[in-house]
């Protein structure tokens, strides 16, 4: 495997041509699926090459969840299940208690047991949403809710606790927790947080790192019970939109865009501050995905190739 020692990303072999990815997902732990509208790019992390039979999705992908090779493609008008292995499609009705329009554009968050969450509150546009689509490991869907509608929030799954949603609302609780199996989230004792375009990652089973909003990385201590305030790491990051992946209990990899739209990557930590990780080629709006080997891949951004970061 290609190793990088906290200095720069490295290019993956036989990467794709330039592609703008608005949504990206990992399929069966092996394939990077990136989508822009109905266009797709699929890269095989095992064979280290782009898959030649490119799929055209049945509707524009505002959000995607995958179970095996089946992808649930969601937009404001509804959802269609698309089998990436053979191209078959069939319309999918929403579970009771909500609509696909309420989660379209929301980020996908995956729990260790395979449960996936499409969180409407994380979408950048389309209006505030309190709806969460929950898809279990077998592909059965249901809806859950937050206590307040949010827009531009960020979300992550914390093992042993559940889905944590942060920001996107200037009046309600700064964060909420949706426990596994629950249908309604519970507010956490953090002050209102209007941050939008943030990214979140669980550093361990009690701490969540938040980046974005052109400020420093902040960490929420979920063990706090009253009058809680996030702790800040050194050095502000100039990112108005961010995605975060954990590196250690006190460090995270952050990818996002500055105010001009240019993509930057940083290694941020509680003790060492923030250090920019140079990308191989300039990108705008690139996406970040974890891989089974502990690396992170950077895909899209209107530039060729796929980049990998591994410590």
Descriptive account of the structure:
0% of the residues lie in helices and 43% in strands. It has no helices and 28 strands. The model is unreliable at 1-6 (pLDDT under 50).
How much beta, percentage-wise? 35-45%
Ranges with pLDDT <50 over ≥5 residues?
1-6
Topology, number of strands: 28
**Shape, per Cα inertia axes:** globular
Q: Tell me about the biggest sheet?
A: 4 strands, antiparallel
Distance between the termini: 11 Å
H/E series, N to C? EEEEEEEEEEEEEEEEEEEEEEEEEEEE
Work out the helix count: 0
Q: What is the SS-derived class?
A: mainly beta
Main sheet: strand order: 1-28-27-26
| Rg, nearest Å | 18 Å
Q: Summarize the amount of helix as a percent range.
A: under 10%
């Amino acid at each position: 495997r290609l190793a990088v020692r906290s200095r720069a990303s490295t290019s993956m072999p036989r990467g794709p041509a330039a592609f703008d990815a608005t949504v990206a997902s990992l399929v069966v732990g092996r394939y990077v699926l990136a989508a822009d509208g109905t266009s797709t790019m699929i890269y095989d992390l095992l064979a280290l090459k782009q898959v030649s039979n490119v799929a055209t999705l049945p509707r524009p992908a505002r959000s995607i969840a995958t179970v095996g090779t089946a992808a649930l493609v969601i937009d404001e008008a509804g959802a269609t299940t698309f089998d990436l292995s053979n191209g078959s499609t069939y319309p999918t009705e929403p579970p009771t208690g909500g609509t696909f329009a309420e989660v379209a554009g929301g980020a996908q968050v995956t729990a260790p047991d395979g449960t996936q969450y499409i969180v409407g509150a994380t979408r950048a546009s389309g209006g505030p949403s309190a709806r969460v689509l929950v898809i279990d490991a077998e592909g059965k869907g249901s809806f859950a809710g937050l206590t307040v509608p949010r827009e531009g929030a960020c979300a992550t799954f914390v093992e042993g606790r559940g889905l944590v949603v942060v920001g996107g609302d200037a009046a309600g609780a700064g964060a909420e927790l949706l426990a596994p199996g629950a249908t309604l989230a519970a507010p956490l004792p953090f002050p209102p947080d209007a941050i939008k375009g943030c990214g979140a990652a669980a550093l361990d089973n009690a701490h969540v790192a938040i980046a974005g909003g052109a400020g420093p990385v902040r960490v929420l201590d979920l063990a706090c019970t009253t009058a809680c305030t996030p702790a800040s790491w050194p050095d502000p990051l100039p990112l108005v939109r961010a995605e975060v992946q954990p590196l250690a209990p006190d460090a995270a990899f952050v990818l996002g865009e500055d105010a001009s739209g240019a993509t930057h990557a940083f290694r941020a930590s509680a003790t060492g501050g923030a250090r920019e990780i140079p990308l191989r080629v300039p990108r705008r709006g690139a996406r970040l995905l974890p891989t089974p080997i502990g690396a992170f891949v950077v895909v899209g951004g209107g530039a060729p190739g796929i980049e990998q970061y591994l410590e």
